[in-house]
Amino acid sequence: MTLLPGHHLYPTPDGWRAALPGDRFVRIDGPDELLSAFQRAAHGHDGPPDRATDAEQLHRFFAERGLLADPEPEPAPPRVLLTGDGPVADAVAAVLGAWARVRRAGRPTEVDLLVDCAGWLPDARWHDLDTTCAATGLPWHRCHAEGTSFLVGPLTVPGRSPGYRDLRGRRLAASGVPDELGRYWSWLDTAQAPPVPDPGPGVAAVVAGLLADEVAAWWRTGETGPVGYQTEVSTNPVRLTRHPVLALPGLAAVDPA
User: Fold this and answer.
1) Rounded to two decimals, what is the model's pTM?
2) How many Cβ atoms sit within 10 Å of the Cβ of residue 142?
3) Per DSSP, what are the bridge partners of residue 240?
4) CATH entry, 79-252, from 3.30.200.20, 3.40.1190.10, 3.40.50.720, 3.60.15.10
5) CB 156 within 8 A of CB 129
6) Residues 44-92: pLDDT tens digits?
7) Which residues in 36-73 are b (16+ Cβ under 10 Å) and which e?
């Protein structure tokens, strides 16, 4: 038994209050000792009050007002294969590693999710990876550098959310110079491309947090849909922009030249 997120039970000089999001407050009347014990239990500090009858009344009071949340069992942590190196990949490993089982090497058949932290856009490789993951049903997430920004996602769950082929096809369709864009992507994947600038620890942490949050939300809820989002983290100045990505019709996928 816990209070809903963002809800707090606390004492004041003239009694107890429940603070609700949006600057809303509920006055709570009852024995101070019991409310103090109930507060500790509701905030997850120790067990419920000893006075069972009074505790049941308090529990019913909070439950009737929709203030309690029954803790749900945490799913087993996902097995994540993280590929790529550099500051962003290291930041992703640190954030994901706090709750997931992250490995930096291994086979995709041994994990629940693949995360690829690329430098510049690896167009041909991601096209092939998208095809492979679609064939095996392996979800995958990704991030890469573009210009002075870093782009995250979309998270791809094969058959349920957009993949790299969808994103690629829509970017080419929206471009006024698709052939030039394709040639630029090909050049970025050569040894002649410059090194990716160091984003600094702040931007790396933002990218890692966004990526890990999307992975956690999907893993814990299983929810995804026909629309995915790619998030752009601009670095000069730091700014977040979300771009919706729709899946392409089956015949509209554009293969790299």
Assistant:
1) 0.78
2) 26
3) 233
4) 3.40.50.720
5) no
6) 665 555 555 556 766 777 777 666 776 666 778 999 999 999 999 999 9
7) ebbbebbeeeeebbeeeebbeebbebbeeeebbeeeee
